[in-house]
Specification:
Strand content: 15-25%
Distance between the termini: 82 Å
Structural class: alpha+beta
Largest sheet: 7 strands, mixed
Length: 337
């Protein structure tokens, strides 16, 4: 059965999806291929509007920082997960900056008897709206590898020194999904596949039956988002902002202030029209609510009327029973005489 879900390429929908802890653990576990048993937001910034250094335009990078507990064959390990999502082409220095903050943060350490121990391992996950130029593959994994330089043989022993100075990385290229479902991870990530967009780009249409039962919580979360009026309004706002940023990228503020102001005026008008549309929708909802209340009141009055009729009928039945009893008594007396 085909169902409508909110498009998680939108930051507001992605954030709503990841705020469900069980869904966040499901998605992260599927990407990294390890069992995440607990996942906690770290008290750091989650979204950031960053300025390009060569002009006044900006772009949006969406961030989620987690501390995670992962089950391993030997027990458990704690890691830091740095998740970043970008819809527009961005500067690699931004990602390096955020990652560097994780390495130098003194709080990113194991706590042993209330004292800081070894630094925590770092995993980085990137969701890119515009893919890389190196290959047309939905998900790329980049893992450190140890080799014997003389023989080029891969060494499989683990070293804390090496693991803490390097990190694993996964890159999801949303534009490369293109109906690819070669494994369960690509199937799960198909909720991002923009080929499933409806005429309303805020909505994707998917076949729920294609997904294993274990992925249904994520599907349900996105179905809830699709039905949320406030989220739909925020997606509209995000559309306007994204188009504005794209326009600024195209024309360059430094090359044409007048063009930029014209675009801003046009976007302001578009926002005004969207706000008017939203107000009309709210008014319609209020009218529907009022109509429902009136129908409810009418039904309550009908119920009351029926209840009174039932009571009246019950009284009549009692009277008839009394009259029948009296008639029976009269007949008995006559037969006796």
């Amino acid at each position: 059965m085909r169902v409508a879900i909110a498009n998680p390429i939108y930051d507001v929908v992605f954030k709503y999806m990841m705020e469900d802890n069980a869904v966040a653990r499901l998605l992260v576990s599927s990407i990294i291929g390890e069992e995440v048993v607990s996942l906690d937001f770290k008290p750091q910034e989650r979204t950031k509007d960053v300025k390009k250094e060569d002009d006044d335009s900006s772009l949006t990078v969406f961030r989620l920082d987690f501390s995670a507990k992962i089950k391993t064959p030997d027990g458990y390990k704690l890691i830091i997960i740095e998740l970043q999502k970008a819809s527009l082409p961005t500067d690699i220095k931004r990602f390096r900056l955020y990652l560097g903050k994780q390495y130098v943060d003194p709080n990113n350490c194991e706590m042993v008897d209330d004292k800081r121990g070894d630094p925590l391992r770092i995993y980085s996950i990137y969701f890119l709206g515009n893919g890389l130029d190196i290959c047309d593959t939905p998900v790329l994994s980049v893992f450190p590898e140890i080799r014997d330089m003389a023989t080029q043989e891969v060494i499989h022993e683990k070293s804390k020194f090496i693991e803490l100075l390097n990190h694993k990385c996964w890159i999801v290229q949303i534009s490369s999904l293109k109906k690819r479902r070669r494994n369960e991870l690509e199937l799960l990530l198909s909720v991002f596949d923009q080929n499933n967009r409806s005429s309303d780009h805020h909505i994707l249409n998917i076949n729920e039956a294609d997904f294993p039962e274990k992925y249904h919580p994520l599907i349900r979360r996105l179905k809830m988002a699709a039905a949320d009026v406030e989220l739909r309004e925020q997606m509209i706002d995000e559309d306007v902002i994204t188009e504005y940023l794209k326009d600024l990228e195209r024309i360059g503020i430094s090359k044409g202030r007048e063009q930029a102001e014209a675009i801003i005026a046009e976007k302001d008008k578009e926002i005004e029209e969207k706000e008017k549309e939203i107000e009309e929708n709210k008014k319609e909802l209020e009218e529907n609510k009022k109509e429902l209340e009136e129908n409810k009141k009418e039904l309550e009055e009908k119920d009351k009327e029926i209840e009174e009729k039932d009571k009246e009928l019950e009284e009549k039945n009692k009277l008839i029973d009394a009259q029948l009893k009296e008639l029976e008594e009269l007949r008995r007396r006559q037969s006796t005489n």
